[in-house]
């Protein structure tokens, strides 16, 4: 299996959408094309660049692949080159990388329209540096209450958490870049050559880069070799002048140097269980160290880097000693950072996992409560279907990406045309025309704000009042002070009075009636389960609701008797999922998809065996009590001889199956009279009629749908041509 | 008759008590016919009116009686004539008898289609059901209804009754109305009939299914409780979004005289090699590359097929759980409905007992569903009970799709209780909020629920079909505004708000909102100061004036709003029903521009203002009112210091927006050469 490992080409992914200005867009995509296309001419320069940058290993066996790889790291220079080139060559049609979302359509939703609130747009890329404390204290055991539970180290918890989040990130947010950096290590490895800081990395990857399969694999297994290769050592001692925390921040800041602050957000996440790193030194030396460290943190923050702390501790982690100042926390924000004492490792890991991804809002919405009362809320996409990422079309010979070119062709004259501004709809024999702007104008029935219409009791919101995943809203005082106060007041009233709000969300593309359901906060030992706020539920309109249950109307519709209901109740009690929580299953299709990709990306031969967690619990179902309850229910509703009756029904073949069988036999006979292999060999299949082709397909149990070409290609595939 | 073809007889009460609502009924019918013209051109429609002075129907000729019932149109395929008939229904002056009218409608259907049961036949009755039906010659009214019901059943006719609520004057009528509703309900026993009560124009527009989509099962097969206990079910979609139609792309390249031109644009996709310009890579040489982080893994379709996830078609029960375990906001998609296999008594009983047990115990079921063989994924869904409201409809389940672990993002938000005191409501504020939530009630006890999704039309689609119809008649017509009766969907009802003025005012007073001083963003500030962008005011200023003369775009603009000032301005200028409008429009526009400039922060409104100014200038030239524009520009000039408009005037001169000259409008006293200089000159002088 050959890998097309070309980071640069993938940077195009964000531009899946059709660009407004074709030329501008072309500029964005084409540099690589030019680079690859003119590789021969540029080759010496590239090699030189590569030599300068990478220093070693470029002239390896990977040949041109390696070169493009290097080019990707020197992205900006070729862009300028390419830009100049392109200016002289205007083009009519648009180009973009040949990508399709969800190629097989298995995750395709019938409701395909995109709403701005539905898809979380990645406005910004996120660059994160994980700073993991590796001091001996981190290798202490987490206190566990249960005796039989294996003791685990804090270090293990941090590593496990990071590798889990990396796995999630490579699937969901693969454009984000990360670096992993240990501090308080015996060995050192960093550009500045500072003591006690070790930047972890794997081959074919920059220090700060998107996570790769190899990174995840090697990082997950790092614990075994950590002590041997990297080692743990606490540097901040009275005698030593080293300050590993300071060093770590400096290294992290240097790693985060790339990228403009305008369109990327930069974060440093510190994993530590030491709330008082300078606890064992005293006097002027201590004051000095604290001062310089805080200054270093402040410098980083002034460069737009946010520093976050993920405390691991079995006792209370006191942020006020140092970290409150380091993080720049203000008084009111403090409580959020306190983790409760005596936590189980699992709970701690849970909290880490939740905090490791920063919240990304989808949009800020104005919420018009009444005329003159407008507050501001942020919308978040807490629940959205995860689908496999877009595919890229590659040339099967070279494994290089292809670009897709789209042209508009006039159906009458065959002339190439610019992107049309005019659309039409046939209506009553007329061709009714609208411009693109007019269509947008029709859809714009409101002003983009969320307008409160009124309140209803919660039972007015029926189970079938749903179309799409909900959106979460939480107030913000950023622009309008008082928003939070107004929102909280309404929230409390709604929760107490058991009401939901009906509102109209007038987005320009997809205005919709919505229900706002107030959700109270739910907290468990492992942290917040449900955040407080409101969920915006998209309501159907009258034409979106169907009444299929009314199709079959029969005056003699039977109803269950009390006894039957009693038996059913007994069954419900037996098969009860006590602690069912909504997202306890992972998606088997998605897991398998990425499992296969990971195996292939790492060059493993064996395909992973992904367990399908969604299958019913056979063992539980086979328990005598459950079986008895089912049998009793079955007897109550189906009567005594149900199985025999069913078997009898099956024995007598229905009309339809008889007919199917007859068709099959005819097809088998008919298709036997041709030499299909010979016809296929000589390209004569196209001379046959569709009926004749279908005979073959029916006889071989293949689908018979599609146009003639499709049928032929299906036959060819079946023949193995 | 094709399977999906429908024959529909509209039976409409046009008596005096209906006159108020008739314009909305006309709109509803127009929409109905429009959709039929677009999606089901072969459907047939007949129109019966009752409550008219005159009488015109076959039954009257044949057997006598059936007075005051007029067949406006026999059952025939929908066309323009149908549309025109329905757009202006005659007003009647009699109190109609809906039973007579139903019989006339039935008679039309039976005569036209005879005993054949093919296709769908539907009667749609719209009445306020206020006036008593006359006593039959023999038997009781109820007997009569039964007879008609039997007839309907045997001919497979469906009955939809839309009962419009009107205020009743006398108790006598109340009695009659109750009796009528009972009679209509009686139909439901024998036939597929449905009564919908509507309380106003908005819900009327949503009351009639305007487009018929024949339902298709998503799944037919077993609902497996265990390997030994299975229930035969059919699964349909319960909700599915009706989409904005996809319009074709238009090409004007075809010769003008080509009658057969399709004017369509096709899109061609080509995959090209990145190394070699213009070299098209044929489909068989393409391979799909799947992304894993920064890597792209090429896998051929055949290889992928061999390894990918492939579950068996089945619907299996995982277990039951308390309904409180499933939060409402976890519902992911549109909704399915599980009905027991029609005709299978055992399945109906099994579903019924489960539904009732689940309802009683407040439980839901968790299912794993694979609808089709070969489907590449599974869904986990929550099954909720639905106890049937009608005797002749079996109990059923609804199924909502739940998220997988990968679909949920567990962001953490600060607890409301931990917020600083300044962001938490005090007692008075909480009370004001409680009152607002209590009083702004859309489902008051004893009244019809307002804005029920079942009765709420889609405003965008309504507007599209209106535009479509208008454009098909007048290709150059302006787009119509949103119909006045739909404004109740997009913004609060001004009637309700004015009733609740004290609650709203109290809430406004208690909750102090102000701009964050740290951030100065003028757009938002403008919004706070002037709530005129809100819909409520729009609702107040746009009034429906006359449905008949004005056609679909019944709403006229009387004021320039913030949302679309240019359009409002143009429409006001175009009004010819009074000379004051031009003057008013100009004045309003000037105020609007001044407001924009006044509220501008670092020039962010300048472009808007220039747009408006250009529109004003053009209109002033057209209306020969140059002085109004020139004076205004001078006025701005004078105020430029207070408003800090230096940049604005620079922008003006760069865009060549000048005073109106004599050449452009004869009334102007500005010479060509002075026009451009004047504001600038003034500016220089004022600077010196």
Describe this structure in words.
The complex is a heterodimer of chains A (721) and B (688). By secondary structure, chain A is α+β, with helices and mostly antiparallel strands. Chain A has five domains: 7-97, no CATH class; 125-358, von Willebrand factor, type A domain (Rossmann fold, 3-Layer(aba) Sandwich), CATH 3.40.50.410; 366-380 and 443-544, Ku70, Chain: A, Domain 2 (Beta Barrel), CATH 2.40.290.10; 562-651, Ku70, Chain: A, domain 4, CATH 1.10.1600.10; 655-719, no CATH class. Chain A contains 24 helices and 22 strands. The relative contact order of chain A is 0.07. Residues 1-115, 119-123 and 338-342 of chain A have low confidence and may be disordered. Chain B has three domains: 6-207, Rossmann fold (3-Layer(aba) Sandwich); 215-404, Ku70, Chain: A, Domain 2 (Beta Barrel); 557-688, Serine Threonine Protein Phosphatase 5, Tetratricopeptide repeat (Alpha Horseshoe), CATH 1.25.40.240. In chain B, 39% of the residues lie in helices and 18% in strands. In chain B, the strands form four sheets. A seven-stranded mixed β-barrel of chain B has the order 7-8-14-17-16-15-13. In chain B, strand 5, helix 6 (171-190) and strand 6 (193-198) form a beta-alpha-beta unit. The longest helix of chain B is centred in the N-terminal third of the chain and has 20 residues, at 171-190. Chain B is globular, with a radius of gyration of 32 Å. The termini of chain B are far apart. Residues 520-555 and 680-688 of chain B have low confidence and may be disordered. Chains A and B meet through helix 1, helix 2, helix 6, helix 13 and strand 8 of A and helix 1, strand 9, strand 10, strand 11 and strand 12 of B. Chain B: It holds the Pfam family Ku_N. Chain B: GO terms for molecular function: ATP binding; DNA binding; DNA helicase activity; hydrolase activity.
